[in-house]
Each structure stands twice: as C-alpha cells, then as structure tokens.
From TrEMBL:
InterPro entries: FAD-bd (IPR002938), FAD/NAD-bd_sf (IPR036188), Geranylgeranyl_Rdtase_fam (IPR011777), Geranylgeranyl_reductase (IPR050407). This is Geranylgeranyl reductase family protein. Gene3D superfamilies: FAD/NAD(P)-binding domain. NCBIfam families: GG-red-SF (TIGR02032). PANTHER family: CONDITIONED MEDIUM FACTOR RECEPTOR 1, GERANYLGERANYL DIPHOSPHATE REDUCTASE. One of its GO terms (molecular function) is oxidoreductase activity, acting on the CH-CH group of donors, NAD or NADP as acceptor. It holds the Pfam family FAD_binding_3. It comes from the Bacteria. Residues 14-355 form the FAD-binding domain.
Length: 437
C-alpha cells in the first residue's frame, strides 16, 4: 500500500490520530476522512497481517460493511444463511431474519484479508496510514490532556512523536494507550479467552451455516466449558475452528487447547478436522467484554473497540461493535472540531460515551449479568436445553439476544419480546461519561 512506504516520513501533525488499524481504527479513520478531517492512522504491523479471530460476521456486521462502502459482492466473501446450534446430539438451524433493514445473510472472511480491505478503504477515503509505527505512549500537556503519541517507526524502530489535539485509542485488547492515560480495566466485568485454528476441510468449507457447539466438556475438570465452540466455513477449502470461554466460576482452570482436542475427537472423521489437515497453529487471545474500560472519552482520548472492552458479553462478537463504535467516535469528533477548543468542544466530546450507553448500555448490562450467572457457571447448555431447542419461537428469541438484533430491529414479535426484555434493565448511575476511577 503506497502510504506504508511513507511510514513516519510525512507530516507528523493531524487533526486526529487513530492508534491501531483493526476494524475499530479503520472504521474511525474512514468516517473521519469522509467528514473531511485530517487523520493519521498509526499501526504497528505491516498489512496484510493476521489477527486471531473466528472470522464470522452476523448480518449486523454486513450492514456496517455496506455503510463503509466495502464491496461485499467481490470474490473472497463467503455468505452464511444463519446459525446451527448443536447440543447433546440435537441441532437447530436459525436463519438470519428476512425482515428489517439489515441484509438477510452473514459473512465470513479471514482477518488476514478483512483488515487489509478495511484499512485500504480508509486510505482511499483520505486517511494517512503509517504502518510499522508502534505507539509507545501518549504525549500530554500540563493539564494531563493528550496532545499526541510517541512512537517507534519502521524496522529500525526510530523514535518519533505525532501530534494531534484528539486521539482515538483503537489498539485492541492491550489497551496500551488508554492504560497510559489512567483508564484501568474494571475487574468486575467479564474477560474471556478464545482460541482458533484453521483446517482444510472440503466437507465443511461451503457449509451455509455458522456452526456453534454448546456441550463441550473441559477434560481436566469434567465440567461444562463456560463458553462454546465454533466451526465457521471460509469457502476457500478451509474452516475456522475454535472455542471461547469465560473463567470458570468454581475450581479448575479452563484449558482451551485440551478442550478443543477432546471436542475434535468426537467429530466425524470425514470432516477432516485432524492434525494432518491443520493449516495454522492454535492461537488464542483475550476478549475484553461488557464495556470493561470507562469512560470512553477522557482528556482528548476516545476509546473504541477492544480497547474499551466492547466485545459482546452475550456472544464474544466484537468486530461489528468495533466498527460501529469507530463510526460513532468519528461522528462525535467531526462535530466537536467545529467548536473552538475549550468547554464547548468538551461538551460535544463527552457525548460519545453517552451515545454508546444509549445504543448498547442496557443490552450489555443484561449480558454481563447473564454471563456471570449462567455462562461462567454452566456455559450455554442451560439455554439450549431440549425444551428451548424444540421451540422455534424460543430459539429465535435466543438468537436475536445473542447476536444483538435488538437495535436494528426486524420489527417482528421476536423483536418486541427481546426489546421489551432489554428495556426492563435499569438505567445506570452516573458512571458512564465520568472520569477514571
Ligand atoms: C479467538 C477469537 C475469535 C473471535 N471471533 C470473532 C468472530 O468470529 N466475530 C467477531 O465479531 N469477533 C470475534 N472476535 C473478537 C474480535 O476479534 C475483536 O473484538 C475485534 O478484532 C476488535 O477490533 P479492534 O479494532 O478493537 O481491535 P484489533 O482487531 O485487535 O485491532 C487492534 C489493532 O491495533 C494495532 N495495535 C496494537 N497496539 C498498537 C500500538 N501500540 N501502536 C500501533 N498499533 C497498535 C494492532 O496491530 C491491531 O491492528 C474474536 C476474538 C478472538 C480472540
């Protein structure tokens, strides 16, 4: 990508710096550039690069890609019709809703290609990408307000400072920039771990469903995995197989790798999910969930995606949340930049955490409670018992809850039930939008 060659040699000043070019950072940079804002996107890696992920998107994610102008009809995308949940010898298919504004299909694509496409889109819109540029810490003024970031640039790790009055932290689960600005993780919020591996599987690579397994056992403890396993088709001869879990409430740690090995032994041999067909090592990473880092705006710094713990506590999905938050942050910044620096601009910037709360607050609080009371103790099996699996209405409701189908409504009875349930969650105290604890 041309701008990669420019890494760190161009102008080191901008109206906004975005740290990290994953889905959150690329979305923020894209919408900022579209709004005419001069934006520098700093990324420690060189594209294309890998990211440990399940590579699955629900229709809500597809909708966001369309908003971002990504060509989802181009080769390389695999469409899905819905989800297939498997539990104790039973399975149920849940097609994505056909009504409502979101597309009626999901997508898969390896993050190797996906993130590359998104960052290219941001650059095409006018964002200035500096890849191989690792932000090492915030620059601040005397009042503790961020004024830029220091970084190490290129293969020779040259130190360089970048300056901007506003910075977006999109540096993923490490949340290095937010931490350095004093924004600690809330330890009461769930944090899961997930791991995945690619396999060559002609039998499963064109499966039209995202397959999810709810009855995996941890071999060491003999207890239910406090999470679920997945097999996602990539359409290129490969599947993405993985599992994610919360820390167990109770004795015994979760060993993801051992649980995956035991699970794969149960699967039909002709699926090909054996060592001989493995196409990558098994790799795992943290899933910061449930808004575990607040406030999402603090002294010139806006947090988006994993750096703010925006992974859904219901499902472990985080790509769409990252992209939507990137857009919301960009919108807020574009408006704020029309105000002179000072209290008026601050007032606009402080709307960002309030907007996130308005969109997702209740849904996330209900999810955090469910994750603590149910998923962390028993996994997903109680929700997928034989009574639920035999009832299409209950299965639809569950699917809508798990995939955050509540604020892009399909407008059917299931939505009415799910939205009603979410609306029963009380509003928060003053915490969202206040200073760091
Ligand atoms: C095993 C696994 C499976 C998952 N499966 C799914 C799934 O199927 N669907 C889904 O929706 N979500 C899934 N998720 C969650 C999803 O991967 C994340 O929520 C999503 O990637 C968050 O996007 P982000 O842009 O906030 O962070 P990231 O994607 O982590 O991007 C952060 C970027 O910042 C860069 N960076 C980091 N530090 C610096 C620095 N100091 N300076 C410059 N750049 C820096 C990184 O290189 C990276 O490019 C999964 C997660 C895991 C671990």
């Amino acid at each position: 990508m041309p701008s990669t060659e420019d890494a760190g040699n161009g102008d080191d000043r901008a109206q906004v710096i975005v740290v990290g070019a994953g889905p959150a950072g690329s979305a923020a940079a894209l919408f900022l550039a579209r709004a005419g804002v001069d934006v520098l996107l700093l990324e420690k890696s060189a594209f294309p690069r890998d990211k440990v992920c399940g590579d699955g998107l629900t229709p809500r994610g597809v909708q966001q890609l369309v908003r971002m102008g990504i060509d989802i009809d181009a080769p390389g995308w695999t469409r899905t019709r819905g989800m297939r949940w498997v539990c104790q010898g039973r399975q149920v298919h849940i097609d994505w809703p056909r009504s409502g504004s979101a597309p009626d299909f999901g997508l898969t694509r390896s993050r190797h290609d996906f993130d590359d496409l998104l960052v290219r889109r941001a650059v095409a819109a006018g964002a200035r990408l500096c890849s191989q540029t690792k932000a090492t810490g915030p620059l601040t003024d005397r009042a503790g307000r961020i004024t830029g970031v220091s970084a190490l640039v290129g293969a020779d790790r040259r130190p360089k400072d970048f300056h901007a009055p506003l910075v977006v932290a999109a540096d993923g689960a490490s949340a290095r920039t937010a931490l350095a600005m004093g924004l600690e993780r809330d330890p009461r919020m769930p944090i899961a771990t997930a791991g995945r591996r690619y396999y060559r599987s002609e039998a499963r690579t064109h499966d039209p469903y995202l397959e999810l397994w709810a009855d995996l056992l941890c071999p060491r403890t003999g207890r239910d995995l406090p999470g679920y396993g997945w097999i996602f088709p990539l359409g290129d001869g490969r599947v993405n197989v993985g599992l994610g879990a919360l820390p167990h409430r109770g004795p015994g740690a979760v060993d993801l790798r051992a649980t995956m090995d035991r699970w794969l032994e149960r699967l039909p041999g002709h699926w090909g999910l054996q060592e001989a067909n493995a196409d990558s090592p098994f790799r795992s990473a943290a899933l910061p969930m449930g808004f575990n880092r607040r406030p999402q705006y603090h002294r010139g710094l806006l947090l988006v995606g994993d750096s703010a713990g925006m992974v859904s506590p219901w499902s472990g999905e985080g790509i769409v949340q990252a992209m939507e938050a990137g857009e919301a942050a960009a919108e807020t910044i574009a408006l704020a930049l029309h105000r002179a620096p000072g209290p008026g601009r601050e007032q606009v910037l402080r709307r960002y955490p309030r907007e996130i709360e308005r969109r997702w607050g209740r849904y996330y609080r209900l999810g955090n409670t469910t994750a603590g009371l149910v998923f962390a103790r028993f996994g997903y099996r109680p929700l997928l018992n034989r009574h639920v699996m035999a009832s299409p209405a209950l299965v639809r409701t569950l699917a809508r809850l798990l995939t955050h189908g509540t604020d892009a409504p399909a407008g059917d009875l299931t939505d009415t039930v799910v939205s009603g349930l979410v609306r029963m969650v009380p509003l928060p105290g003053r915490r969202a939008g206040t200073g760091p604890r």
